[in-house]
Amino acid sequence: MRASERDTRVLRAAREVLAKYQLIRTTVDDEARFAVTGGSRPYSLSLSITWARPPTCTCPDSQHVEVKGYCKHAIAAMLSEPDLRCQLLEAYL
Asked: What residues does each domain of the chain span?
């Protein structure tokens, strides 16, 4: 993924998802799970608190190889949760 695409994704996540969507978190073992609502469809998002695996989301965008699971929902969740923010570094590597 090109840097400009990543920047667009972060800005879109911050602007659209955080402004319009609800991200409801539950934590199970080492996994932060989010119910994402407010968009065209509800999605389920999982983020490893220990960075053991990449994020997974049920949205179509997260399935693209170049995204590596870092869809706008995952980025928005990482931006909104202090304990997950440092994982944004992975999206840029």
From this structure: 3-91
